[in-house]
Design a protein that fits this description.
The chain has 525 residues and is α/β, with parallel strands linked by helices. Helix content is 31%, strand content 16%.
Length: 525
Amino acid sequence: MSRDYDFVKGKGIDRLQPSDNRQLASHQITLNCLLERPIFGKCDHWLVDGSLLVESNARPETRRLLTRRAALQAGAAGLGMAELAMLRAAGAAETSVKAKSVIFVFLTGGIAQHDSFDPKPLAPADIRGEFQPIATSVPGIQICEHLPLLAKRADRYALVRSMRTNSDGHELACHMLLTGRQELPPGFTLDNVPSANEWPSIPATVTYALRERDNPLPPAVVLPQPSVNEAGKVRPGQYAGKLGNNWDAWHLNIASPCALGNGACPNCFRFEGTPFQHGSATIFDPPRLTLPDGGEPRFASRMNLLTGIQRQQLDLDRAADRFGRHRQQALSVLSDARIRSAFEVETADEQTLSRYGKNKFGLSVLMARRLVEGGVNFVQVNLGKNSTWDTHRRNFVNMKDNLLPPLDRCVSALLDDLAESGRLEETLVVVTGEFGRTPKINKDAGRDHWGRVYSLLIAGGGVRGGRVIGASDRLGGDPIEEMQTPENLAATLYEALGIPRHAIWTDIDGRPHKVFHGLPIAGLV
């Protein structure tokens, strides 16, 4: 390369330009340069205004999708449409996460980034908090000391430390995160939730987008209960909304009744620390999945008879599409032993229960794993009901005693089982809340709502573990590198499941809408 190019000084930056005013010796060099950006280190070549900036220590994880600016730069470098098409394809291949299934662990209420995945040990005491960071299995990456199991498995996941949701309120932030859109729809109101004036949830969109797949099981499931506030009011963004309830995911409201339910029932708690007892004898009230009298042979006969009747009543079935589709899914659940057993988590063997935790957190994650093994494409696990991670008071006591240990245990067990079974590469796992918490600790030893930056754990589906995407500032208050939004997260989930970027959905009034409203998170693969 040095034979073809001369160093030219410009504004304090060393650049390469063609010697003797010649064109670039190789378009491939330019293609490679345009696909690179420094995230953690420097790259060998960086195209700046048509010139190549020479740096050192190129790292393959710095590759990214073509941006508008990069396209203009490519034009300046003399690349034609064919080369640009190659560039786009190469960029997409570099950044695409691919999976058969997604397990989305939603930490309702918003987990504190400082006290979990983005510690700030050098910040002032009233910001860094009481917890200490610990080293992980990956040199240079630290997380909270109360996540020791996840620390040992850092090579299996990546951390995104630059998520942002443009709201500090639970309702709006939930709608933004769970639908993958920060723009609110026309007619949206918090006075009527859920309603047809909400954007469809990500699970509902997945249900619609995968409607033609050859699998009678529901594409998407939400468990073990909806996210509600302390008054029992459902938060927006959890249902099909403008898509129409025909495309709602399967919502398995199977958590046993518990008036408060903060945390990992039966080890539930009150934020203020007053005594509280779990409200039921069990953790779950699973659906009753029993076969008709006569067992499986008679059930199979009845299904054959039903098939014959359906052939004669095709028009009626089409008119009752929603009923027919849900009926078929119910029959499939009844006839699939793997799905039936997925709900029987409380009777799992003691070793499994010990590894996941015999509580609502652990059993919910175990159920999610069994459902994706049975063929469900998307499972959203709501870890908490009444703003469980909303630690305005006694943040450090509740995180240490009630929240971080069960989270640490169940997510670690999930990653272990997926890895050992060979399913981690085909199952994308995401863990996050609707926003983060304030850098400054309040007078009640808590942290308040903070949508400006928070963290996300992502694993599987080809994600390269042991990495950090983006960064927050020294106080953990704003993203300073690689900011990501709910749109980027939703795009990552959709593309992982093979939903094309040109996909659309049609609302109940017949208007078309794009599925994608952002690019997938770059730098994961």
